[in-house]
Write a structure and sequence with these properties.
By secondary structure, the chain is mostly helical. It contains three helices and two strands, in the order E-E-H-H-H. Helix 1 crosses helix 3. The chain is elongated.
Length: 62
């Protein structure tokens, strides 16, 4: 699903950055993808995806 329509960034891209690349915050995701730099409507949903992905990593580690 597309999270940021302005830049064509999907939830899969955000999850990959968190899970595979170790990105832990929105600031880094915004640097890597330009997410939220145009209209900003995607930021809230992206934060939720980051949080859920971090929770998934935590569960895998335990």
């Amino acid at each position: 699903m597309y999270v940021c329509l302005c830049h064509g960034i999907s939830d899969k891209k955000i999850k990959k950055l968190v899970i595979e690349e170790g990105v832990q915050d929105m600031r880094t995701i915004r640097k890597c993808t330009s997410l939220g730099s145009q209209c900003g409507k995607c930021v809230k949903q992206a934060k939720e995806i980051v949080y859920e992905s971090q929770q998934q990593l935590f569960k895998q580690a335990c």
